[in-house]
Amino acid sequence: MPKPAPARRVTAADIAQAVGVSRATVGFVLNNTPGQTISEGTRTRVREAAARLGYRPNKAATALAGGRSRIVLLMLPDWPADFSMRTYLEEASRALDEAGYSLVTQTHSAARMARPLWEALNPDVVVGWARFEDQDVASMRAAGITRIVPGPDAQVPLDEAPGVGDGARLQVDHLYDLGHRRLAFAAAADPRIADLVGARASAAQDRAVIRGAELRDVRAVGDAACSAAEAVRAWHEAGVTGIVAYNDEVAAALVGAAVRAGLRVPQDLAVIGHDDSPLAALFVPSLSSVRMDAVRAGRFLAEVALREAEGRPLSPLRYEPDTRLVVRESTAAGAAAGIDEAGADDA
Amino acid sequence: MPKPAPARRVTAADIAQAVGVSRATVGFVLNNTPGQTISEGTRTRVREAAARLGYRPNKAATALAGGRSRIVLLMLPDWPADFSMRTYLEEASRALDEAGYSLVTQTHSAARMARPLWEALNPDVVVGWARFEDQDVASMRAAGITRIVPGPDAQVPLDEAPGVGDGARLQVDHLYDLGHRRLAFAAAADPRIADLVGARASAAQDRAVIRGAELRDVRAVGDAACSAAEAVRAWHEAGVTGIVAYNDEVAAALVGAAVRAGLRVPQDLAVIGHDDSPLAALFVPSLSSVRMDAVRAGRFLAEVALREAEGRPLSPLRYEPDTRLVVRESTAAGAAAGIDEAGADDA
DNA sequence: CTGCGGAACTAGCACGCGCAAGCAGCTCAG
DNA sequence: CTGAGCTGCTTGCGCGTGCTAGTTCCGCAG
């Protein structure tokens, strides 16, 4: 053997030399550049040589020359990437990959980096779940990023954004239909997700008003066991019989606290969670919850990112979430005793 | 106003023009290029102009010219990014940012992408938790990536890698010290994490042999409630009194099944989880678990990636994990009744 | 024989930056 | 007075690709 390989990457010039054409031709063939007439024979020979040599275009050069990196950066809030989130991301990633884009996600940590990821990656689009802070927007602008979703002047508040409040409305409806009229909302104490928690809480409150139930008390339940116990005690004393929890973890904490306090779930206190995490089914008693169609949400994200990347309008696009109730023991029907007298005043 | 801004990104040439020096000088100043003598006055003026104009170097151009992207790609297995993982990633990200690198993570999905992320990002280093498949290594090679950790011919098996088996050993020791002699390992059914599950299982088995306990039955517990019930029944019939669970979720499923089957936890069956997820403290009974120091692990990852990126040797680096037992109700001391006769034959 | 138009390419610039090489001006030993 | 050595810069190439503006060849009508 004279030398196994030059350990140098294969470039378009190598293909050009191997085939005996110019580098431009190679580019035209491999990119299917419209407006160029290249004979079928040449096309074939170029493609074969590319495959044979294992050509991978240098993305840094592509990005520099073309001005597009074909990267979509998704900034996620700092909450757990549970299993439905993973499905969501996987689907979005798959859909974008099909369109020739790569999805990169980062969970936005509180500590501000010296070099934010959008600066390092040069993404074509930055997508977030909530509006970005002005500081971040300015940083993106300086990094040459013009396509930001949601735009810096998005007008829709988070709790009215499609999909965000649907789960909360289902939760309220479910408890109402079981006869509960005094409800409370159990928020998560984690400040990092305050936006989403607040959005779900206000969606729940609005729904309660519409249905004619009472949902005033919004209380944060932290990781500390005592806070859950305290909340359960206060709610029970106030005559609350149904609790809308921000997510399954909060619901679990409350159910645990209720059981420890000697309350029966769901007879004395019904609790419904959100997200249908695996934990919900395992808990004793098992937790009712709300599940969202992560695949559909992922596809929606991909579509939004693609349209933005290619400068197509987002407007005709509408997200139709598929949110479903998952009823389990923690809100079992027929078990809500002693609350009939409270809810007899309306149809 | 004649026109607010050309909407064009600020380049080094703009700074050069503003200051009245050549573009090279700008580069030398901003990169602190060694071996160049630039007067302090010029340095200051360049830096001021850069700040004033909001200069952000184009990373695509930097990567192309310098051959380094200063990106570290971490490929994670497809398991949940729970809260300790997030701490881990955050710390690693912070440490790398300090050194001028960006950390990008991707959870390796089963579906193979048309364009893997390492191709799109051109990272200097790709780091994984387990050895990469040959196919992936080949793909990285073709994309011009030479620095891969662990190397394609890493010799240390996963269960002997520092940190991987420590938790399992602690779990076994804990149950042993409580008097349990017949143990079982509860694996997770998810095939995506089979490697890690297997590594923990074999570490647990080895430890049990060393201590003189019996741990033979390794059984997968899936999401379906029936599989947990079935496993609990089989183990209880076989006289197993202590269960080492792969993680807290599996532990929760087992404890739930045991309670439903009328067994007392921990009196009839002690269960210890792994990872100390928030769920562990909330469950009723609360779950004993094992917690690892995610901050330390994150720093270790960053250090490994940095050394590899800069071509420094990894060898003198040693990971000293800080793995600790968290004892809760599911293995409460003194509650293990009726097993004393089984464990009287050794010191 | 000339002109023309289309097919099938090629030459070469631009992208923004890192960095090697070079060059003017000055100082100072010999 | 020369030239070696230093400071403080500038010129310019190269990275690999996209893409515009050609150029060559060739068939065919006039």
Question: What is the topological layout?
Answer:
Two copies of one chain form a homodimer.
Chain A: H1 12-19, H2 23-31, H3 40-53, H4 59-66, E1 71-76, H5 83-98, E2 102-107, H6 117-121, E3 125-128, H7 134-142, E4 147-149, H8 166-177, E5 182-188, H9 194-211, E6 214-221, H10 225-237, E7 242-245, H11 248-260, E8 270-272, H12 278-282, E9 289-292, H13 294-309, E10 323-326
Parallel strand pairs in A: 1-2, 1-3, 3-4, 5-6, 5-7, 7-8
Antiparallel strand pairs in A: 9-10
Helix pairs in contact in A: 1-2, 1-3, 5-13, 8-9, 10-11
The structure holds a DNA duplex (30 and 30 nucleotides).
What characteristics describe this protein?
homodimer; 347 residues; alpha/beta; 434 Repressor (Amino-terminal Domain); Rossmann fold; 3 domains; 4-stranded parallel beta sheet; 10 strands; 42% helix; disordered N terminus; DNA-binding; HTH_LacI (chains A, B); LacI family transcriptional regulator (chains A, B)
